[in-house]
Amino acid sequence: MYPISARFLAALSEPHTVATEVVLFRTDGRVERLEHTGGSVTIDRGQAIRRTCTVTTADPDLIPRTPADQLSVYGATLRISRGVQYPDGTSELVPLGVFRIDSVTGDPDYGPVTLSGKSLEAFIADDKFTTPYRASGTAIGAITALVQRSLPAASVVSTVTDAAIGPRTWDIEGDPWAAVQELAASLGAECYTDPDGVFTVAVLPDLLTTAPAWTVAAGEGGVLVNASRGMSSDKVFNAVLARGENTETNSPPVSALVTDSDPTSPTYWGGPFGRRPTFYTSSTLTTTAACTAAATLKLRAAMAPNSSGDLSSLPNPALLPGDVLRVVYAGGTRELHQVQGLTVPLSESGDFPITTISAKEDA
Question: Torsion-angle region of residue 92: left (phi > 0), alpha (psi -120 to 50) or beta?
Fold first, then answer.
């Protein structure tokens, strides 16, 4: 969860005034705070571009009409926040992301106008390779070089241990953001932009050992609106075989199979769940140890989605994918859920759907 005060968290379950802010950064250096009437920010861990937004405003002057207008919007960005305005007049805002504006549509005379955007990963994804691109050294170093190739001022922060990689060359027309994800996957991690627009390399938190970030409870004083619960074995695996073979260095093939070896686990390798391996191959893996490390971290995510939930609660803009929630149903049943995605409204009223990827009973 994004760092917030205890006062903020307590206010979410009580009647409060919503504070929102949308700031437009034009390419000509102008910075404007946009008056807006609605919109939302969707955050989805399952998408390559993790954050998308829509912002509705009454101002038709935002629709580009001249070449100068177009130049000031092409490449412009939005910074969006939502929070709480306290009774004493102070506010606490939580950033929801930094977005590249991709479209501006609306009635040119009377409005309203809708701005749509994607988080900063889109700059990397669209900057396709025009010559073969070769990466080597370490995974984090190569990720940083790819990100700063498109956004020289971008920051890259890693919470995982870096590791050496074998040389890897991507072809012309290749997707640099897919290359970033491949390099992160070699560490068993993923890369995305956080609410402040910082490129982050991190692993999915472990549901079994991560402290709950928020309690979503039904009943008086709670924030749960409704919920549905399900289980599926689709896309659930209990082993990862990681393999590497680097023809650029003539390195011999290496591999490692990591399985769910916990006899008490419902996905125990060789148990009633059966054997369901998944595979990961990258020329960046040049040693058995590197294969083992990548497979171990990837197995955690591969085993996670054995149950899912769709929740709707009072909005909490500080929630992040990977956060663990303690859900308390009306009958008193308690479960731990892990956030996969959510949509934050920019209006006073508005649904706040949360999708989760795994769950377990909470004692």
Answer: beta
